[in-house]
Amino acid sequence: MLRPLGLEKGKPFKPDAWQTTILDDAVMVGEAMAKANSADRRFAGVKYRSDAHWDLALQLDPDDPGGFWNLLDERAAWFYEAVGAGPAMAPKRPGPSSAYLGAYKDTAGKWLDGGSSYRLRVPPNPPIKLFWSVTVYDVDARALILNEQKIADRSSRMDLRKNGDGSVDIYCGPKAPAGFENNWIPTIRGNNWFAYFRFYQPTEAYFDRSWPLPDFEQI
To answer: pTM of the entire structure?
Structure first.
């Protein structure tokens, strides 16, 4: 597939000016397509629930893992952001596993912006046996957000401030809200971001989707 582009083992790659322009344009278009395919997923059954923008990050069927390789767009959306995949990362029933949800938009349907501040209210009684975590990633690098504080995630393993009903407010933004510093993930002005919410050993309320996970709300 690469040979018609001039990429062949043992031969120098010397594109002329015309081919260089085409390849440069293709890189830009390909990157835009990959971003759109990941951040605005239109796959059947991709939404965790209809009342929020959280997507199933990995749509691999653990009962038919081989079928995943034929799902070109779904596979491309996952591997644009991730490195490996396995059936235990997309469980269909309780057991030793981890489940991943991805968010790219706030409750108003706007892209998550590093210059704005948001609150994610994690409801009480999360459907987990081990712990949950929220991790923020840079849209362009698809890697952990590189803030000065070197804080990219908050999880139930940490000493987080809880609300009276047992819910937990996670804050993402350039400044920490007073009194909630332990619940804060710093973001960077001028950089968009997305988040993964992870369930480690999810329980039945995750699978029947009776446990709601609200959107990030701009504050």
So the answer is: 0.92
CA distance linking residue 192 with residue 113, whole number of Å: 5
Please write the tens of the pLDDT for every residue from 33-78: 999 999 999 999 999 999 999 999 999 999 999 999 999 999 999 9
User: Which residues does 165 contact at the CB level (< 8 Å), separation at least 6?
Assistant: 124
Yes or no: say if 74 and 85 are a contact pair by the CB < 8 Å rule: no
Distance CA 11, CA 116 (A): 50
209 DSSP β-pair partners: none
Q: Are 137 and 194 in contact (CB under 8 A)?
A: yes
DSSP string, 38-81: HHS---TT-BS-TTS--EES----TTSGGGGGG-HHHHHHHHTT
Name all domains of the chain by residue range, CATH numbers in brackets.
Answer: 34-83+96-218 (2.60.120.600)
